[in-house]
């Protein structure tokens, strides 16, 4: 994965008015509440997956990824809301670690954060930050609302038969309060359109709506429930797109490690900055000086 794919913004600057930002914030709240209301019974109901609705597609460690059966006709069928024949995807399971570490691996409001996350999580192949609405603070380090663009590599793209898919979307991270008082981390991505963000040549603009919730259920165990739809805009690549999407839904397995590595990097950078502030010598310089004295 080339670093340049995370440094070049293919679009002109996206300037949002205060009214547009407020609309996006309200959209985010609405989506989070709707998904929370839908997924909360899963957590309360013993984490049971309906085999008549969901078909196991992929399994790794303690995570399972399901696709919604096309014949399922329940009122809660997610695929019925899609304009394509692509199935809805459900990812459930448990991950070892602390919830704060996981959320630190999830939140990625800047381009550099996205690049670091992608190096560990491998959930997209190119990206750009288009507009920042809410940035993390010391008091709320996991809260972010950002408009982004990302690109996903599709198998056989080099043959010229298919083109990569890209997405323009609103991404939100933070914490929600559950009815029993527990906190749940959330992460959602939802496609949005702006006339200032035109479709790119050699890419097909897709749509997505994905929401994940994460709960600490034991001192070192995190419960995961992630659902969504990814429409790559074209029935022709369905067989190619679904495996890519199901693999992306296993990304929570790598969030904790990503968060731990980011925290370690942050602590090292902070220590280095404090050492420079107090005039501590550079370890490399001390070694070179000692070598000269010995000679």
Summarize the structure.
InterPro entries: Rab4/Rab5_effector, START-like_dom_sf. It is built from 6 helices and 10 strands. With 295 residues, the chain is of the alpha+beta class.
Task: Note the main attributes of this structure.
ten-stranded mixed beta sheet, 32% helix, disordered C terminus, alpha+beta, 295 residues, Alpha-D-Glucose-1,6-Bisphosphate, Chain A, domain 4
Descriptive overview:
By secondary structure, the protein is of the alpha+beta class. It has one domain: START domain (Alpha-D-Glucose-1,6-Bisphosphate, Chain A, domain 4, 2-Layer Sandwich). The chain has 6 helices and 10 strands. Strands 1, 2, 3, 4, 5, 6, 7, 8, 9 and 10 form a 10-stranded mixed beta sheet that branches. A hairpin with a 5-residue loop joins strand 6 (164-177) and strand 7. Helix 2 (99-106) crosses helix 5 (252-277). It starts with 17 loop residues before the first helix and ends with a helix. This is START domain-containing protein. It comes from Phytophthora kernoviae. Residues 275-295 are annotated as: Disordered.
Instruction: Assign the CATH topology.
Output: Alpha-D-Glucose-1,6-Bisphosphate, Chain A, domain 4
CATH superfamily: START domain
Supply the CATH class: Alpha Beta
What is the CATH architecture term? Answer: 2-Layer Sandwich
Span between termini:
45 Å
Helix and strand string, N-terminal first?
HEEEHHEEEEEEEHHH
- What integer value in Å does the Rg equal? 21 Å
* Oligomer designation: single chain
Binned strand content = 25-35%
Mean pLDDT: 84
Total number of distinct structural domains: 1
Q: What is the overall shape?
A: globular
Number of strands: 10
Helix content: 25-40%
The biggest beta sheet is recorded as: 10 strands, mixed
Return the structural class. Answer: alpha+beta
Could you list the spans in which at least 5 consecutive residues all have pLDDT below 50? 284-293
Region (Disordered): 275-295
Organism: Phytophthora kernoviae
InterPro entries: Rab4/Rab5_effector, START-like_dom_sf
Protein name: START domain-containing protein
């Amino acid at each position: 994965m080339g670093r340049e794919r995370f440094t070049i913004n293919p679009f002109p600057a996206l300037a949002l008015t205060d009214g547009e930002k407020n609309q996006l914030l309200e959209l985010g709240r609405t989506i989070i509440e709707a998904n929370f209301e839908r997924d909360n019974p899963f957590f309360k109901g013993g984490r049971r997956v309906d085999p008549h609705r969901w078909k196991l597609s992929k399994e790794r460690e303690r995570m399972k990824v399901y696709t919604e059966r096309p014949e399922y006709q329940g009122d809660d069928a997610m695929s019925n809301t899609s304009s394509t024949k692509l199935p809805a995807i459900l990812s459930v399971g448990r991950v070892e670690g602390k919830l704060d570490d996981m959320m630190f691996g999830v939140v990625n409001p800047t381009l550099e954060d996205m690049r670091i996350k992608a190096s560990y999580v491998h959930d997209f192949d190119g990206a750009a930050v288009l507009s920042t609405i809410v940035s993390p603070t010391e008091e709320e380090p996991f809260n972010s609302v950002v408009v982004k663009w990302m690109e996903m590599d599709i198998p056989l793209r080099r043959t010229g038969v298919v083109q990569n898919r890209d997405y323009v979307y609103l991404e939100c991270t933070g914490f929600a309060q559950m009815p029993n008082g527990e906190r749940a981390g959330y992460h959602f991505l939802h496609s949005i359109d702006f006339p200032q963000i035109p479709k790119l040549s050699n890419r097909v603009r897709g749509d997505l709506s994905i929401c994940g919730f994460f709960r600490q259920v034991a001192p070192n165990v995190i419960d995961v429930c992630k659902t969504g739809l990814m429409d790559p805009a074209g029935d022709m690549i369905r067989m190619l797109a679904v495996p890519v999407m199901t693999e992306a839904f296993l990304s929570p397995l790598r969030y904790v490690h990503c968060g731990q590595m980011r925290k370690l990097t942050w602590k090292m950078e902070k220590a280095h900055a404090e050492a420079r502030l107090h005039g501590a010598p550079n370890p490399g310089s001390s070694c070179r000086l000692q070598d000269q004295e010995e000679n």
